Amino acid sequence: LVVLGIETSCDDTAVAVVRSNGEILSQVISSQSELLARYGGVAPKMAEEAHSLVIDQVVEEALDKANLTANNLSAVAVTIGPGLSLCLRVGVRKARKLAGAFNLPIIGVHHMEAHALVARIIEHDLHFPFLALLISGGHNLLVLARDLGHYIQLGTTIDDAIGEAYDKTAKWLALDLRKSGGPALEELAKEGNAQAVKFSTPMKQHKDCNFSYAGLKTQVRLAIESRNINPEIPISAASIQERSSRADIAASFQRIAVLHLEERCERAIDWARKIDPSIKHLVVSGGVASNKYVRSRLYTVVEKNDLKLVCPPPNLCTDNGVMVAWTGIEHFRMGRFDPPPPADEPEDFVYDLRPRWPLGEEYAEGRSEAR
Length: 371
Ligand code: ATP
Ligand code: FE
What we know:
With 371 residues, the protein is of the alpha/beta class. It is built from 13 helices and eleven strands. One of its GO terms (biological process) is tRNA threonylcarbamoyladenosine modification.
């Protein structure tokens, strides 16, 4: 099997061609980071236009790099949610055009399931069931993956995701946002003292597996204000003292943001083992999982609990086409796909887009365990 995967749920236009043995034949990403840096966030209409401008070219390049034509494909996979519907539509339209023209089956993919399952490309003995921590710009999920397409949600964020907190902190510290905020903040944090600013860990009193990052964001903003840090002055122009003060905030923020992950993972391991004692792995994926400090802290958690950590390489943690193609392959093998769309599908056809789409069911007993 050879599947082409298309990802346009947020700000990256990503396409990849993957073989069912896990071999990545090609991977192309067109990133909107310039736009992001200029406007300080994703504006859906602008992101849609950017996707539309490059999608044909990105698909073509992915096929070229794989040395294939669309005739060689077995199927097309595409993210149908969750995400920005204007953006999802661009990917789905392209996927259906391609599938229609070459008579290929099509697989609609859940973006967060894809973040989790891509780990199975790199770790061959990663079998179900396993625990997954999915940390990105819009999600903060702890799920027990029982089987393909069968997930139990142990925890989610009650407000912001950790990636959002990294991005805002980076913006307020006036870091260079040409890349995204997360990597810039991780870099600066290396220079700082993680004990310098006393932030409190979120949700200490809640004995569940949920997350909250809005309060930590507020604590960071107050710390920045009380230290008279001027976000108009870019970090590159800051004095040595000012830079070290910003680095202290970055390091202290990162320590608490990640401590919150550690505490929730500890509890989630207990909960998951009550549901299914046979779990052997913790998968950590999503953009924030490319952070080295995050990886090293979670490594100590799995060591202590006799599990194995599976963390995809950074370029498979952030949004990419490989995870979509791979998740397509997994579903296709189980016979879950849609027949080829008609080649002459009208432009105004109503697509199955799922901008809000929970991954699995909530763990109902969680509420009573939390008491
Ligand atoms: P979602 O997956 O929730 O829909 P998304 O697709 O926009 O959100 P991803 O590409 O999976 O998100 O992840 C992007 C997020 O990861 C951003 O918030 C970014 O700052 C963060 N991120 C990327 N690299 C790092 C890093 N090294 N350290 C911390 N955060 C990082
Ligand atoms: Fe993502």
